[in-house]
């Protein structure tokens, strides 16, 4: 039985897929940030242009000098930069949070049994089931090694074969 190699291959596949998804999300966030940065820079540019115009005219607006308006513009610029940094950090934090798998309380409700004599194989690790081996049957009736499906359902709510939603099916069984 070559369970270790199969699990290693699955782990590598999942890791490569996770890197791909993270790269895609980072690229999209960079695009979104560039758009926001461009808009914010344009707003700052407008404030600075107005500030320069007012400085050239050498007059006060509502009794407040030009210097105070420049300070306000600088404060806004700093606040915008701080908000951009917070937005970026929040996005990165969301990416690296544990993915939305099936909660443990639902995993315990899955049908667990011992395998009888069979020529079938687990479609996660691609190894044949052995007699008296622990297997789990999902609500869609597909069966897997317990260790394989447990690790799969920690990061996904879908059946690896038919893509039916395991979490929804378990919630419906509760009702």
UniProtKB/TrEMBL annotation:
Return any one Pfam family short name.
zf-RING_2
Q: Residues in domain RING-type?
A: 122-163
Metal-binding listed as a keyword: yes
GO MF annotations, alphabetized: ubiquitin protein ligase activity; zinc ion binding
Gene Ontology BP annotations: ubiquitin-dependent protein catabolic process
Q: How is this protein annotated for GO cellular component?
A: nucleus
Q: Which UniProt keywords apply?
A: Metal-binding, Zinc, Zinc-finger
Q: Which domain of life is it from?
A: Eukaryota
InterPro entries recorded: RING_finger_E3_ligase, Znf_RING
The protein here is known as: RING-type domain-containing protein
């Amino acid at each position: 039985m070559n369970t270790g190699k199969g699990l290693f291959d699955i782990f590598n596949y999942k890791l490569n897929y996770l890197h791909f998804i993270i790269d895609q999300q980072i690229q999209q966030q960079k695009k979104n940030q560039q758009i926001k940065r461009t808009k914010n820079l344009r707003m700052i540019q407008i404030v600075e242009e107005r500030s320069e115009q007012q400085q050239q005219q050498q007059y006060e607006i509502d009794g407040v000098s030009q210097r105070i308006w420049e300070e306000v513009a600088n404060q806004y610029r700093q606040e915008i930069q701080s908000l951009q940094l917070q937005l970026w950090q929040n996005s990165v934090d969301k990416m690296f949070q544990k993915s939305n798998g099936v909660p443990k309380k639902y995993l315990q409700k899955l049908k667990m049994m011992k395998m009888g004599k069979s020529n079938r194989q687990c479609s996660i690790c691609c190894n044949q089931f052995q007699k008296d081996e622990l297997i789990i049957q999902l609500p869609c009736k597909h069966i897997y090694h317990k260790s394989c499906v447990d690790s799969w359902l920690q990061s996904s709510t879908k059946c690896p074969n038919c893509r039916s939603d395991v979490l929804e099916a378990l919630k419906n069984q509760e009702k």
